[in-house]
Specification:
Elements lengths: L3 H13 L3 H20 L7 E5 L6 E10 L8 E3 H7 L8 E5 L5 H8 L1 H21 L5 E9 L3 E5 L5 E5 L14 E10 L6 E5 L3 H11 L1 H4 L3 E9 L3 E8 L6 H6 L4 H9 L4 E6 L4 H8 L7 E7 L3 E8 L4 H5 L4 H10 L2 E6 H14 L4 H6 L1 H16 L5 H38 L17 H9 L5 H10 L2 H4 L6 H13 L4 H13 L8 H10 L2 H5 L1 H7 L3 H8 L12 H11 L51
Parallel strand pairs: 2-3, 7-9, 11-12, 14-15
Antiparallel strand pairs: 1-2, 2-4, 5-6, 5-8, 6-7, 8-9, 10-11, 13-14
């Protein structure tokens, strides 16, 4: 038969929903605290407690010093007593012996109650925090315990309490005490009074989790939720797509006769939900996001000033429906698609298109072609201004006219983007690659100039050179960059330039030295024939006369450049012999010197097996002695 202690211990375990080890540790810690208080023991002394769960007996073990004559019973023990516990004990050793006071159970029961309760509460809070921290982003069910102006308190599992602030509650939703509700855990924080669990019913992830629970296709990954835009309690838009062919993602979410979506609508207090199909075509996706309004056309524009903007043209009778109450429909569509949406009626869009053709000089050619259509559009706009109705044929003509003008605008923007990309690539081709590996703070310029450039987003020397090539006025416009500073920057960046001749020589070297098949001689001849005569005649001289980019880079970062490790004379002679181990007369040009490596670093250069002679070989240069310096 179990003792009363064992029965009480098991009852506490079941009531607190804690493990037996946690309760036992708390009980032993309480016994140790009770012993220290009873005998006024030092915290530095090792004290342990052992509890027998069957009988309820408590034994205390303390560390004591072995001595011949005991002066303090709390810290010292006789050698004879110590040998009973540790046979090999000697004088001066520290031995853990049984020091349980008489009638310790009654004393411990009085002094250890608060300690036991405190340890159990701490264990409960720790378990609660670990349990709910793993459920962040998941839906939990709870009971409303209290409602205040700040929010509501929700009772959860593990005897925990969650807080739902007013901003996390669905507007106009009335909660009553003892109501069971579902909500989303979006944050868990530790505090002195236990874990702070924050709940929400207005978060858009709450709608995502409800869809996953109600729609098996979403849970299993057959249907994927692409984006969600939500205004709690009023309206929400959900974009979905199918990961397998033959699946209707919208139908799967709506369900037969809307059973699935209606269950979610009831959970969200009759919040309207629009489920649309996601599309990789931005124009088609935006047109669907404006639903239930009917769209005539969608025209996209992406600039640095305005960002991504979509102009949506709708019929006049659909304008209010497309915008929605207080702009709600357009606002949700913008959140769902990630585009800034500008909604216009057909008449307004036609007037703007007509104005572009009449006033913008860039569209003179198109205006000449569309002269007849412009006259008809002007007549239609006059009729609308007078309040006279237009037949459907006029609206169709107007829609086609708008489409032609806007498509021309889009085409011109694409051409401008291509031209900008071409300018960028040309400028990038003149910037040495090594400059992008040099930090801007290591450049040989004044310190305040370097900090100004870094604050402007220029992190490397290559970024500075590229920006000077593209638009130097932006550097001059920086606050703190004057004419003198700008001249220093311009002088530095102008010296860092990769010439076209260098690029031609490098490309020719790559073609002449194939790794496997030396069958590229015809390609080399075609490249040489396409070059201008002056460039083919003396490619090497042009490269030699110009200062190499590597030397200029070294000058630019001179204050922080490390000196190369000096090699032994034997190694230099050996490398020099290897460099000129080929017959230069076979190729008509010379390869640049290989990169210098520090000691202990291997040089990994692949050498071709065979090389073909060129048709017109050039004799080797006489100034071969200066090759290494070059």
């Amino acid at each position: 038969m179990k003792s009363e202690f064992a029965l009480a211990f098991n009852e506490v375990v079941e009531d607190r929903q804690l493990s037996r080890d946690v309760i036992l540790d708390a009980l032993e810690s309480a016994m140790v605290s009770a012993y220290r208080r009873a005998v006024n023991a030092s915290n530095a002394q090792l004290v342990e407690a052992k509890v027998d769960l069957d009988s309820g007996d408590v034994r205390i073990f303390a560390e004591k010093e072995v001595v011949e004559d005991v002066q303090n019973e709390q810290t010292e023990v006789l050698l004879s007593e110590a040998k009973k516990v540790e046979p090999e004990a000697e004088l001066g050793d520290m031995v853990v012996v049984d020091t349980t006071p008489e009638d310790f159970g009654r004393v411990a029961a009085q002094t250890a109650r608060q300690v036991i309760q405190q340890r159990i509460r701490e264990a409960e809070r720790e378990i609660q925090y670990e349990y709910f921290a793993k459920q962040v982003g998941e839906i939990v069910s709870g009971v409303v315990q209290a409602i205040s102006g700040r929010g509501a308190t929700i009772g959860l599992d593990k005897k925990a309490e969650g807080t739902m602030l007013r901003k996390d509650m669905i507007p106009r939703e009335r909660l009553r005490v003892h109501d069971r509700i579902r909500c989303l855990i979006y944050d868990v924080k530790e505090s002195g009074r236990g874990p702070m669990i924050y709940l929400s019913r207005a978060h858009r992830k709450f709608l995502r989790r409800l869809l996953e629970n109600e729609v098996p296709e979403i849970y299993h990954g057959v249907v994927e939720i692409r984006s969600i835009a939500r205004e709690p309690g009023q309206r929400a838009k959900v974009a979905v797509s199918a990961t397998q062919q033959g699946i209707d993602p919208v139908g799967a979410c709506v369900g037969v006769r809307g059973v699935r979506i209606q269950a979610i609508v009831r959970e969200l207090s009759d919040e309207k939900i629009d489920v649309i199909e996601w599309s990789s075509d931005a124009a088609a996706f935006i047109a669907k996001a404006i639903s239930p309004a009917r769209v005539v056309g969608v025209y996209l524009s992406e600039t640095e000033e305005d960002g991504r903007t979509a102009t949506v043209v709708v019929p006049e009778d659909q304008l209010s429906l497309a915008i929605g109450r207080d702009g709600q429909n357009a606002r949700l569509a913008a959140k769902l698609t990630g585009w800034r949406i500008d909604i216009k009626s057909q008449v307004e869009a036609a007037g703007e298109s007509l104005k572009k053709l009449q006033e913008d000089q860039q569209y003179q050619e198109m205006a000449a072609r569309e002269a007849e259509a412009m006259e008809k559009i002007a007549i239609m706009l006059e009729k609308k201004a007078e309040g006279r109705p237009l037949p459907p044929e006029d609206y169709d003509f107007m829609a086609k006219f708008i489409d032609r003008v806007e498509k021309r605008v889009e085409k011109k923007r694409r051409e401008e983007d291509i031209e900008e990309q071409r300018r960028y690539e040309e400028a990038l081709a003149t910037v040495p690659e090594l400059t992008f590996e040099i930090d801007i703070l290591n450049v040989d310029l004044k310190e305040h100039i370097l900090f100004i450039l870094q604050e402007a987003g220029i992190d490397t020397l290559g970024d500075l050179v590229l920006q000077m090539r593209l638009d130097s006025d932006k550097i001059l416009a920086l606050n703190g960059i004057g004419p003198k500073s700008f001249e220093e920057i311009a002088e530095l960046t102008d010296a860092l330039r990769v010439s076209p001749e260098e690029k031609i020589v490098v490309e020719a070297e790559e073609v002449v030295q194939p790794e496997e098949e030396p069958a590229d001689q015809a390609v080399i001849e075609e490249v040489v024939e396409e070059l201008p005569a002056e460039e083919v005649k003396e490619p090497l001289e042009a490269v030699v006369e110009e200062e190499p980019a590597e030397e200029v880079i070294e000058e630019a970062v001179k204050p922080v450049k490390k000196q190369p490790v000096e090699k032994e004379e034997d190694e230099e002679e050996e490398d020099f012999d290897k460099l000129f181990s080929y017959d230069a007369s076979k190729y008509g040009y010379y390869e640049p010197a290989p990169a210098q490596f520090e000691e202990g670093e291997e040089e990994d250069r692949a050498k071709p097996e065979k090389k073909k002679k060129r048709k017109k070989p050039r004799p080797p240069r006489e100034d071969m002695d200066d090759w290494e310096d070059w």
